[in-house]
Amino acid sequence: MDLLEFAKGPALQVAAYILVAGSIWRLVGILLLKEKPDFSEPRQSGGLLAALKVIYTRSFTASPFKRATLYPKMMAYVMHLGLFAVVFLFVPHIMFFEGFLGFEWPGLPNSVIFFLGVAAVVSGIALLVRRITNPVLRLISNFDDYFSWFVTLFPIVTGLLISVRMGFRYETLLAIHILSVALLMIWLPFGKLGHTFLVFVTRGTTGMVFERRGAKT
Amino acid sequence: MTTVDGRHEIDREAERLAYKPPEIRHDKQGDMPDDQRINQAMHHFVKNFNTQTASYLDGCLHCGMCADACHFHVRTDDPRYTPIWKIELFKRTYKRQVGPFAFFYRLLGLKRHVTIEDLEEWQHLLYDSCTVCGRCSLVCPMGIDIAGLVSMARHGMFKAGLIPHELHEVAKTSAETGSPLGISADKFEERVEWMADEHDVDIPMDVEQADVLAVMSSIEINKYPQSIAATAKILNASGESWTFRKDGFEATNFGMLSGNPDWQKAASMKLIDAAIKIGAKTLVLPECGHAYMALRWMGANMLGKPLPFKVMHISEYMADALNTGKIKVKKLNKSVTYHDPCQVSRRGGATQAARDVIKHLGVDFREMEYGGDYNWCCGGGGGVVTIKRADPLRHRVFKLKMDQVEKTEADELLSSCANCRQSFDDSQAHFSWDYTMGSLMETVAENLEGGTS
Fold first, then answer.
1. Are B109 and B89 members of one domain?
2. Within 10 Å of residue B279's Cβ, how many Cβ atoms?
């Protein structure tokens, strides 16, 4: 078994198991904690609709905070959207997903994906520079922040290297790329990257609690 | 040549030449060994954990945006005042003890134990520099209610005997006497009689059956007793069957502010029991922000079932009475701006009530820039105004509020919280500021038209 076969086979498979099992474990560990009933008389209805509302509305910044958070928010948006496009709208990736999902969807031209990938890396670097130089971020950051940054950016960089065919042979680059994706999948459930799914829980619970009060969400 | 002795660091963020004050005082109550304090702090923090709090502690992205929403950070640029950092110790404990991967964290030693020195340092961050105003909760991209977590962390700090002495003393007095200022039921009755005479208004006391139970805060009873008469005038004009009760008159809840759920419950139950005893349909809370949070949103949970009566802040009561025509007010020819008490508006959901009242007063209403739900806190909420050692920081923070008010160029500043009022009065004196915070309720009471309609 060469490196590429290992990456495509057991590495990716084990990573997928860890991704699924770890995510379920983390979610269940949180969702199964006891929840005390709230007996206060609601001002307005809460429930699932309130949760959905805040899951959506918190994607945008409230006016008073726009100026102060404009730069990191913009960078974060570029990085997230770039990452999304690279993972799900790059034609070879769609073909890979089709292999086990059984259906496909339209992708974006390779040149656009390349541009978005570069944009994601550049914004990621900008966010890292900010994390290192901003006194608040320097204080509150820990290993998870830096490692999560690395495992997120690494697959994009290795993917971009494949398309420019720089350095190694194609097969070696592809193997490294797949292994970097496996690393991302393995780490995702454990650290801050868990926000991929936790964002729905945190925003949702805030929506349910504060919407029923009629308070600002 | 003169040299500086180096004991005190220069404060480069201050507006004028200043040296940083000496190390902050670390208060300890009782004589518990340090290990026990740590255990108590952590045990009582995680005791009431639920999905909401766990997801909050697990979901933080360390983006630091909450710092931009916190008045303490904005005014000092001190990164320690970043709201999420204020619960760092508890976040660490959660991950080590309770979180889904606690086993790994412990096994691999990834999160170090909290020390007594850590807790002592965090006393300043959890009490002196957080008013639980919840502005940070609105900027968080994950929607984490950081203010709620600070309140939970205070539970741990209280049980560990690690809270500021002033706040502990006030909370203890409240638990022992029923009032944070030690105002007895007889003293309250005396004040009520005095106000009834002074303002020539009927004030019912200890009526056995009434539709409305009205309560006051000790700050009002002691410092702004005219509030008692104002409450009476409004309820009389509404034609309510109402009463004050000596067995349930104190609305403030220092059990909640200090972090002692037992004292919080005892204080709430006094009011709940009194309201049930007289068969009240409504309990009207005074101009007090945290009293609203304690009873309107937490009261039923103290009782363990829905309250058999409605709980209203006085601003909500007045809005309702004005909107339905139960009371009428004269139109005022002046411009007014309004300071929203955080626990009533942003966190309590009653933002519109005060605006309805102001509309009936017919004034030129000048909303502050980013007023309402995004209002800057007065700096004295969450018990901070009680902590003397926090005064310099609180005054520094108040500058934001001053700028917000001054920009409106309004003739008058009104609000609906006696705790904010106390904080405004103190800061006004400190800065020799032109604005005096007036009470919305007193303004309505002074301008009532013709009584019952």
1. yes
2. 13
Domain that holds residue B428: 326-446
B25 domain residue, yes or no: no
Q: Would you tell me which residues 132-151 of chain A have a C-beta closer than 8 angstroms to some C-beta of chain B?
A: 134-145
Tens digits of residue pLDDT in A53-87: 999 999 999 999 999 999 999 999 999 999 999 99
User: Is A40:B312 a contact under the CB 8 Å cutoff?
Assistant: no
Distance CA B59, CA A143 (A): 16
The count of structural domains within chain B is 3
CATH number for position B204: 3.40.50
Is the ipTM of this structure higher than 0.85? Answer: yes
List, in sequence order, every residue forming a beta bridge with B336; answer none if it has no partner.
B365, B412
User: Angle at CA B385, nearest 5°, toward B381 and B389?
Assistant: 135
Nearest CA of chain A to the CA of B319: how many Å? 15
The CATH class given to the A3-20+42-213 domain equals mainly alpha
Q: Check CB contact of A65 with chain B, cutoff 8 Å.
A: yes
B1 has pLDDT over 50? no
C-alpha of A35 from chain center: 28
Cut 0.90: pTM above it: yes
Distances (CA, A) of B397 to A84, B253, B318, B402, B416: 41, 24, 31, 9, 20
CATH, residue B65: 1.10.1060
User: Taking the CB of residue B20, how many other CB atoms lie within 10 A of it?
Assistant: 12
Measured in angstroms, the CA of A61 and the nearest CA of chain B are apart by: 7
